[in-house]
Amino acid sequence: MTDLHLLDATAALGLFRAKELSPVELMRAVIERHEHVGAPINAYTETMFDEALDAARDAEARYQQGVERPGLLGLPVATKEKHMLAGRSLSQGLTFRRDDVSDVTHPVVERIRRAGGIVHARTTSPEYSCATVTHSPLWGVTRNPWNLDYSPGGSSGGSGAALAAGFTPLATASDIAGSTRVPAAFTGTVGYKAPYGRIPGVRPLSADPYRGDGPMARTIADAALLANVMLGRDPDDHSSIWPDITIPVRADVADLRIALCMRLGDYRVTTEVEQHTYAVARALADAGAVVEDVELPWSSRAIAETAFTHFGHILGPAMEDETAGHEAELAEYTRRFIADARAAAERNRFVDGLRAETRLQSELATAMRGFDALICPTSCTPALAADGDYLDGIDIDGVHLEHYWESHLTLPFNIANRCPVLAVPSGVASTGVPTGVQIVGHPYDDASVFRVGAALEQFRPRGNNHPDIESLR
């Protein structure tokens, strides 16, 4: 079987169950792929290949014996380093934490292992997952398999790069401002920001409604497969919700009404991104959906101010507490994030932030009234430089934005945090880097966003879904 490293997880499970493919064969394929082209991409913080092969042999035996087979049995899964694994590193990219070891395992990793998934590697992120590029003094620069000059995005950039490059069929991610959806856009993969509480987290930031953990994959079905393992109530996280659900995947959108909002107010979107987003809208219309343009009265600067007010009262102080005495060792983008968050909290009280958040949530609800979902671009720009820090802002079509967070359209949906959002590919830009759209649902309506995503995957198939890494080396 050629290109075994690019086999989808759902297809692999079918072959495992039919005894036409061994989990050992698939594990060897993704390991060999990483050994062949992994160095220039730099997507992993560590590998556990020997342990993974042993686990794959155990899974192979279970399939041969016909014993109980949990839902991910034998599948390789790469997990973001911040998703703790007992006995393994928990540095979050910080040089002064390089020797820290976790004594607990994150609930999403526990669930993956309980379902038979095999954690064979852990993926890179920027320090504290607080940038939309992926590089750090500890791990270096992670590059986009589609074009090594560019970033796979952040903060779950290692997961996106590993998926696109064929190092794994499934990966974990996290999202507090777009950290799942931005890498999904830039790597041509699928990322899911679940509604707050759908997937359990770790205290104390499990109580922060902006944040969430979730799946990344190469297909809609695979994203749903991993999401269904990760979601559900956890007794140690009282913000996790019940009853549990199972996300279905169906591609029929003939009875759906979908809102298209290109700029979410005044976000500046490049021509290429706009064209690809319109092509997505046309594909949905051709599939039978009613697609109509809507407007939102949002300002990208006001959204950034709202979010940084939130960060300034929660995440920023938490980061300051954990880095006290080591400020000089932090990456400049981390220091900048902490400073920006502190400044916003000094300008605005927590209740001021709540007023702004609930106003935005109400405006989104009004715009989506009468529609089943909303689509919009994921990022204004089609690429970010792999080693860029954008501390001086970013230029979009000749207009300078003070903060590069204004170049992504993800942040509003961390503010509207009960809305499920599925990030899917929309095309490939002239840079060779993919572009993407977000599918936004009403609060806790996970099924609708997967339904729209599945329709796009079926009715607007892309040509070459995988980067030609050999030509980039």
TrEMBL record:
Molecular-function GO terms, alphabetical: catalytic activity
Amidase domain boundaries: 25-449
Domain of life: Bacteria
Pfam family, one: Amidase
UniProt feature coiled coil, ranges: none
InterPro entries (UniProt xref): Amidase, Amidase_dom, AS_sf
Family indicated by similarity: Belongs to the amidase family.
UniProt protein name: Amidase
Organism: Solicola gregarius
